[in-house]
Design brief:
The protein contains 20 helices and 23 strands. The protein is α/β, with parallel strands linked by helices. The longest helix is centred in the C-terminal third of the chain and has 24 residues. It is globular, with a radius of gyration of 25 Å. Helix content is about 35%, strand content about 20%. A 6-stranded parallel sheet has the order 2-1-3-4-5-6, sandwiched between helices. β1, α7 and β2 form a beta-alpha-beta unit. The structure holds 5'-deoxyadenosine and iron/sulfur cluster. The site of iron/sulfur cluster (SF4) has 10 residues, from α12.
Amino acid sequence: MQRCQRWGPLASVSWVLLRTCRAHSGLPSTACSSPERQQEDGVWKDFSSRLATGPTFQHFLRNASVPQEKPSSEVDDPPPYLTVDELSGRQRKVYLETYGCQMNVNDTEIAWSILQKSGYLRTSNLQEADVILLVTCSIREKAEQTIWNRLQQLKVLKSKRLRSRVPLKIGILGCMAERLKEEILNREKMVDILAGPDAYRDLPRLLAVAKSGQQAANVLLSLDETYADVMPVQMSPSATSAFVSIMRGCDNMCSYCIVPFTRGRERSRPVASILEEVRKLSEQGLKEVTLLGQNVNSFRDTSEVQFNNAVSTNLSRGFSSNYKTKQGGLRFAHLLDQVSRIDPEMRIRFTSPHPKDFPDEVLQLIHERDNICKQIHLPAQSGSSRVLEAMRRGYSREAYVELVHHIRESIPGVSLSSDFIAGFCGETEEDHFQTVSLLQEVQYNMGFLFAYSMRQKTRAYHRLKDDIPEEVKLRRLEELITVFREEATKANKAFVGCTQLVLVEGLSKRSATDLCGRNDGNLKVIFPDAEMEDVTNSGLRVRAQPGDYVLVKITSASSQTLKGHVLCRTTLKDSSTYC
Ligand code: 5AD
Ligand code: SF4
């Protein structure tokens, strides 16, 4: 299984060979006459003579046998055409910019962890960067357009770069690199490197190749890369919460979704390495972890042979899967159980799950463990069974609603959130009305609503027609947003008069005299920064700090926020927050 990822460098070397600096291709280029360029010419000649002898078959075989989990001090062997020194970042400054979902935020931390070990420095100042890397998203057309626009701005920055400085290098990482591959390099000659979501370990090599004036790419997807041994570097050291990636990729193939094509096959990270990361975060004093993946509750750790005897869990009632049910492995309920035992004062959340994988064991655990948040994201996508079938979601409206009832019975007080798409192929006004009525029926506490954006390669692209005019999609989206807000306001008003346990994050963005944090259901709670009793420390008077748990009496609610006043500082174990 290791092989797939380990062959990466070989395939991208052929890309490197195809793309040379204009100076080496005989075309006129002013940029290539600078002193750095002349110096680089020398490097290039040396480099190309070594490249000609190239990596041997034995080199890749040797790498293929390297176990995935390595002590962090151990450094990969450089490929034979690059020296350790050429692979080193030599304190060049990297500026990382993240777009899209939380998974990309986590990928940014992984990419940075790899570059840091390779001798790069981090900068948050674009002007002083030697390398600019954009971690990109492809889920909707608009997300990609944002990156194309950003590249135009970076082009100007690159062209204005002083010749006395090392040339600025620009890289595209993540889903857009994976989806568009050569198109990016052809359209934007100023892009120096491309790295798909499974190729971040290759970043030092890609940047070393780019230093010699060539474009370099590795967009190979892997069957087993989970970056299990790469400890992500937290961007903000004062944060109270962290995201822990537990799986990558997706096998569901919902007909509208590009993710299976950009992030590849579903694979789970070994339980042991997840527990180790959560333990470290707990030791650092973090108070909340969110287990992260495209389909977290389909988690299945098969890294050890004996795990394959584990009893397999069933799909939620009335749900089916687009692939043959997978057997064996340690499942999500086991992981959740183990993670929640690490630190009773640490809140555990997870996102994003698929509604098909909510066996009773998972619901039971959420109900009985104080530190597993009673909050479930249950992406419905549509309220119409006809559209759900076209989307290949594997459930009908009725099965979904039954699951909602079952979850509410199993976990009293649970907060629910969802994703919806407006204007999917063939969606009629009646289908749209069904979605409106599902929003009214469920009364979600939070919602993420999108207009449908047709993506190439998806099943919908090949088999269905994107026949809903843009203005109709937008009108339906607006209607969904309005209904969602009305219903969420009603649902959140139920908290008025209740006491909520809030994990304090810091100052409110809107007012310097207010603090903000989140309740168990992940709703934002705002309250005045006032002195209060500390019940954990014999009634001392204190002010709330980030990372504290406080009880807040809720006095008002809107569709997105709760407001109230603080009662006391407490612990997660000692608090009871339901009305
Ligand atoms: N168009 C619009 N929304 C989409 N999503 C996924 N693919 C598309 C698409 N092509 C939404 C789904 C998913 C969320 C992460 O993004 O609602 O749950
Ligand atoms: Fe996309 Fe469906 Fe996989 Fe979610 S479950 S990532 S929507 S294919």
